[in-house]
Design goal:
mainly beta; 7-stranded mixed β-sheet; 4-stranded antiparallel β-sheet; 0% helix; elongated
Length: 121
Amino acid sequence: QVQLVESGGGLVQPGGSLRLSCAASGSILSINAMGWYRQAPGKQRELVAGITSGGKINYADSVKGRFTISRDNAKNTVYLQINSLKPEDTAVYYCKAVLLTPAGGYSYEYWGQGTQVTVSS
């Protein structure tokens, strides 16, 4: 029932910017947290940025100062503003939400299918 729909990925030159979005839809009672992860070729999936329902934000050290996470609670949507892109930022970016549904009775982790970000001249 719950779906995470991502958009905003693409091909950009070094130094460019992108804005990723992820909207959660379906029967949702509450969202505890949403965040962005990425997985580059030959590397493990890593947390990029996360935000809790209380507004606590966490960033990976590698993206601090360049990436900004934000949310729109009315739309159940999380955004990731990516500035000063580097080739090493190239990866598949995944959206994750921890949320509660009426049927589940407990908070559960949901993932989007991922969106490709490629940084190349």
